[in-house]
Specification:
Strand content: 5-15%
Structural class: alpha/beta
CATH topology of the largest domain: Rossmann fold
Shape: globular
Strand order of the largest sheet: 2-1-3-4-5
Mean pLDDT: 81
Number of strands: 5
Distance between the termini: 26 Å
Number of helices: 13
Largest sheet: 5 strands, parallel
Low-confidence stretches: 127-143, 275-288
Helix content: 55-70%
Oligomer: single chain
CATH class of the largest domain: Alpha Beta
């Protein structure tokens, strides 16, 4: 799958016509713009949260507008329009629960940043693994249709998060999916579970005490287990995301968890057509 096709899979980027018209040089420039957004977003996110906490309406208005401009640059037109609408509401003090909306908007954008990073990471990896896309040639939609539900029946998911409330939200989001979810609150507890259970998918929180999700993933991989991993994170910093991808991560769920976003990502991760990163991980270790 080409970089164009991977970018087209990101629903929040409205770039179908644009990509068709880009030369190779213009595509490289667009990718640089995407990288700029990835680099800038954590700083902008922190600044907007800070103005939200301080109830600094004037600064928040300016920063949300600036974020909207950056989104327009990468072709995320719908969310850019949301930013402009929201900024206007802030300025006129018409938005009642502005803090909740800020967090919802930033969650959307964090997911967008991670999706872009995954698309660009796969582009880098494909240069050294020309066979990496072969399993995706007939990829179907991960929507929860009857065939998909049948495929998911009896699948085991091992979810690990030190926050029991987060695990409860995850299980609630998955209540209509016929998977069996085993939830534990620490890495060592997860490793004990693996002595008797072979999951079809791991869901690891990255930021945990005693043993974080990346360390847990490394122990799992060191044991020879190549089961896909979906990471839960509240951090979209490029270094963290890259480490998670290199640890064999196949996707991300961003905190605070949005239940509407969970099911599609989990179904996609469990799909037989979603073997790219696990295969990349196995090839990388075979070459070492």
């Amino acid at each position: 799958m080409s970089i164009n096709e991977r970018l087209l899979e990101i629903e929040d980027l409205k770039i179908t016509e644009t990509l068709q018209q880009l030369t190779h040089q213009q595509l490289d420039e667009y990718i640089e713009t995407l990288n700029g957004f990835i680099e800038d977003f954590p700083r902008l996110e922190a600044e907007i949260k800070e103005t939200s906490e301080k109830k600094d309406y004037e600064s928040m208005h300016a920063k949300v507008l600036a974020l909207g401009d950056k989104l327009a640059e990468i072709g995320a037109d719908d969310i850019a329009a949301e930013c402009r609408k929201y900024a206007g509401s802030i300025q006129s003090n018409k938005l009642a629960r502005f803090e909740a909306y800020v967090h919802f908007l930033l969650t959307q954008l964090a997911a967008l940043s991670i999706d872009i990073q995954m698309a660009l990471f796969k582009e880098d990896e494909s240069e050294t693994d020309s066979s990496s896309d072969e399993d995706n040639s007939d990829a179907s939609s991960p929507l929860a249709d009857e065939a998909t539900m049948e495929m998911l029946t009896g699948k085991f998911i091992l979810a690990v998060d030190d926050d029991p409330q987060c695990l409860d939200v995850f299980k609630l989001a998955m209540k209509e999916v016929p998977c069996k979810i085993i939830a534990v609150t620490s890495g060592p507890a997860a490793l004990d579970i693996l002595k008797t259970i072979v999951p079809n998918l791991f869901v690891f929180d990255i930021d945990m005490p005693e043993m974080n999700g990346l360390e847990l993933a490394q122990k799992v991989r060191d044991s020879g287990n190549t089961t896909p991993i979906v990471f839960i994170t509240g951090n979209v910093d490029k270094n963290i995301v890259m480490k998670a991808l290199k640890a064999g991560g196949t996707d991300f769920i961003y905190k605070p968890i949005n239940p509407q976003n969970v099911v599609g990502r989990i179904i996609k991760a469990l799909s037989p057509n979603n073997a790219y990163l696990s295969k990349t991980y196995k090839k990388r270790n075979a070459d070492q």
